[in-house]
Design brief:
Blueprint lengths: L1 E7 L4 E7 L2 E8 L4 H10 L2 E8 L5 H10 L1 E2 L11 E2 L9 H13 L5 E6 L2 E7 L4 E9 L1 H10 L23 H27 L4 E5 L3 H8 L8 E3 L3 H17 L1
Parallel strand pairs: 1-4, 4-5, 6-9, 7-10, 10-11
Antiparallel strand pairs: 1-2, 2-3, 7-8, 8-9
Amino acid sequence: MHNLVIDIGNTNAKLAVFSGRELIDYQVHKQITPEILKAVSDRYPVTAATVSSVAGNAGDIAGMLDEKTSYLPFSTALNTGIKNHYRSVATLGPDRWAKIIAANYYYPGRDCLIIDLGTCITCDLLNRRSEYYGGSISPGIHMRFAALNHYTGKLPLVAWDSAGETEILPGTDTINAIRNGVLQGVIYELEGVISHEHRENGELMVLITGGDARFLLEQLKNTIFAPQLIHDPYLVLKGLNEVIVFEHVQKD
């Protein structure tokens, strides 16, 4: 059983092929094209597929997959046994819900705080009883840099590479003052979230994902929270695949 799952985010589109629950191919693209889908289908005997899109523009892709596979439209209406207490399910991001689904399967019976450092920073808690009440959404790192430039007259737009710039330098000039303020602000914010949830849930697991995840891991590696951290860059994709697997088992 080969499943194709696609996560269309605000910046990139991620594609993965699973054999059962084993991830066997992973790709990142600016957008998914018919040529990309054909190359995947030529290489793997894909039988089922699903797409999550925060941008709401997956119609063409969904149509192509519906013709070639057993296509399952992904939405927050799909559930694999989670008690969802979120009050506005219609506006719950599909990527957030996919991560909750993944956490529920891969870390059963555990309190999981899921932190995603992408275009936005989201924090969501799934407790050990598989109950989900929600979390928080705040601007991502690059969005914070852009906001300082956009809403001021003289502050420059500061470039920052999460893969190559893990050290936070003192703010001894304007560029580094902006970097220091944004990056330290994110670290303090997330340390506060982790600390708060840790007090409520002593055996908390902190699952970190998203494009800027490695930066956070580097900053927290020597803190008291380090033993609780798990980096899982494929959490959304695993959640999408889990829905397909769950639906297949239910039908059987």
